[in-house]
Each structure stands twice: as C-alpha cells, then as structure tokens.
Amino acid sequence: MSQPSSKEKVAEINTTASPDVALGSIQLEKKGSDEDEFEIFQRVEGAVDFRTVSWVRASVIFLKLIFAVGVLSIPSSMYTLGALPGAINVVGWTLFNTYGAIVQGNFRNSHPGCYSIADMANVVGGPVMKEIVGFLFIMSYIICAAAGVIGVSTALNALSVHAVCTVWFSLVGTVVIAIAASVRKFAHIGWLTWVGFLTVFVAVFIVVIGVTVRDRPAAAPQTGNFDLGYHVIGSPTFVAGITASITIFLSSAGTSAFLPVISEMRRPKDYNKAVYLCMGFVTASYLAFSVVLYRYCGQWVASPSLGSAGPTIKKVAYGIALIGLIVSACLYVHVSAKYLFVRILRNSKHLQSNTVVHWGTWLACTIGLSALSFILASAIPIFNYLLALVGSVCFAPLAIILPAWLWIYDHGHYRSGSIAGKLAYWLHWLVIILGVFMTIGGTYGVIVQIINAYHDGQIDSAFSCADNSGST
Questions:
Q1: pTM, to two decimals
Q2: 98 Cβ partners below 8 Å, 6+ apart?
Q3: Which of 70, 138, 169, 294 meets the CB 3.0–4.6 Å disulfide criterion with 153?
Q4: How do residues 145-155 score in pLDDT, each as one tens digit?
Q5: Could you tell me the domains of the chain?
C-alpha cells in the first residue's frame, strides 16, 4: 500500500484540527502525545513551515500591532477627559486589555484548532456567532489599516507641504501597504516590525522633546495671551467623553490580532511571556508620552500627535515615522488577510503548499482588503473619528464582551464554588455588560461626532484632496 504524501498529511491534520471537531478541547489535548498535534500549521516534511516565530519576535509583532495607532491618538483624547481621568483611562484600559489577551491566549491553547477569535466564538456560541465575530475581526483591522492609510497620507502631505491631492498620497500608501502585507509569513516581516516600532518610537520621542522646549504650543497663537486648555479633570459631554474613552480603549484593544501569530510561534505556550513584555512597555510608553504631550500642548495637540511640535519637527517626525506607519497598516492587512486565507483554504492541501491556488488566494486577500482600507480612509478622513468608530463597533465586542464570555465558558463551575469564585464569575458578567454599554454608547457618540464634524466643516467630502496635515 502506498504511503500518503506530505500534502495529504497536511490536509488530514488540518481536518483534525478543525474547531468544529475539537469542541471537547481539553480532552483532546490530553489524548494527544504531541503538544503541536492540533496546531493549524503543522511541521510536516515537504510542506511550508509557518512555525518559525520566537516569543521575543512575537512580542515585537504585538508591539507594532498596537503601538503606532494608539500613541498617536491618545493625547487629543486627554484634552477631552482631563489629565487625571485620561491617565486613569490609559492605565485602566491597557491593564484590562492585557488581561483580555491572556484570557484569549489561554482559551486558544486549551481548545485545539482555534486559529482565530472567530474559532473561539464557534466554540462558545456556535456557527452563527463564528460568522459574526469573523466579520467583526476583518472589519476591525481593515478600519485600522484605513487609519494607517490616513497616517501615511498625512505624513506625505507634511513632508511635501501638500504637493498633490491627498487621495493620490492615500493611493500610493495603499499600494506600498498591499505589497508589504503580501509577504506570506510573520517571521519574514519580523524585521519590518523592529524597524517600524523603532521609527515610530523615535519620532514620538522627538515630538515629546520638541513640545517641551517651546514657549507655547506650535498651533496656539504665537503672540498675546492664549488658553492652553490643560485641565486636571475635564468636563466633557457624554458624547465627547465616551468617544475619548473609546479611543483610548482602542489604543491597546487589538489583542485579537495576537491570536494568528500564536499559530506561527515555535512554542505557542510562550505566548503569555510575549504579551506581558509587549503590554508592559505599551502601558509605560502610552502614559509617559500622552501625559507630557497634553501637559505642554493642551487643546493645541495635533491628531495624529506627530504634528504637535511645529512645522520643522513635524517634517522630521513624519519622515522618521513613515516606515512605521506603513508597517502598522501592513500588519493590520496581513492579520485580516491571513484570517481569510486560512478560512478559505483550511482542510485543503493548498494551505501549506506552494500551489497556484495557494498564492492566488493569498494575494487576492491582501490586495482586496488593502483596496477596502483605501476606500474607508477616503470616506472618513479624520484619524481620531475613524479609530473611535472601530473601537466602539468592533473592538468593544471583540476585546471586552468576548474574552469575558470565553472565561465564563471555561469557568462556569465557579458559579457554585467558593465566594472568591462566585465573585470572579459575576464580575465577568459585569464585564459583558460594560462591553454592551461601550458598544452602544460609543457607537452613538462617534456617529454624533462625525455628523457634527461634517456639519462644522472639519471633514471635507469623501475622496477630498484637502491637506490633512495642516501644512497649508
């Protein structure tokens, strides 16, 4: 009898790893003699080996997925909330999202076959919930990629003093993002994440230094008295306050994008170490950078914040950060495209084989989703509002409601356990209620803000050529 080929082995293993089959995950894990047996990407002779990411590199990928967009959006939200509530929001939401990331990772590693957050939703809520969460996952990172496109177009406008129509800059940025996102493995774009993170970090650091040495904010009146707009505690309306809070929440909420990376880690069980390293640095950096920028710029802080220290430093900062902005958007497209790619080719021989179907599917996913991000960036061309929208509509369900649900699913017995267990159980139900509130309230607040921005002329028409960098 002939032996099955390596491609047939891959298809067979991927079929075994399907979450639809692996609902009794804990029992399956105990039966398996190999901890890698139920991984989506297998180490099989003759197949493409995706499992090459170390936990340190995974941590840097996580860092780049979160750091750029968040650090550029928080300072303007602090003006709305005030320094103290803003700082509490930064620390509180980053710690909360760290916990959510750990819950998701632990659930994934104890329920074999869960490649994405949608697979986890399938375990706890069935096929319908899987489709809903899968849609939210794709849309969330495509909107984040759209914010990245806006960041790239803003950088090019700042560097060129708005030399051409902003739509053209957005298109150029999208093409570069699509090419970079089409690199197939996380390991192969790992070096880009290092460069991307360092460039954004250095750029923000330069801006922070720049604002501290000025007599007054660059955007403020340069003569006479002016109102800095710095408040320890702000007094926002409900709409403004929840929009600011959801923006800060979003800055560290992209933890569902960590999950596909686990499947390409050499040792998926090292995931928690990667998360703690990433989120510890994120919390400290967000707090330090945002507090300093708000203290010295007040209401005159720019959005994105790289334009806060005057035209010269703005050009320097955007010139340095440009690569990082591209890499961020590239990762968002890559993560969402990888989800679609695995979803389409799962249980087939093409998933880990260099076939025409394999490459055609992969490139169709990256190019198609990049095009969608370009359309969204041109339709809602204000950075903060786009982020707040994705935070309320997509990330509140993904990063607040679903992790709590996953925990309840695995710890249902706590309901009738000790007092501490009961307290933990019902606290997770309160988290679900919080998630519902942030979803509904945040969406309402953002929509009102966007409508007002169009009415007040802050947002031009869709596909506008207007300068979005404030350079002209």
A1: 0.82
A2: 252, 255, 275, 276, 279, 283
A3: 169
A4: 998 898 899 99
A5: 53-220+228-456 (1.20.1740.10)
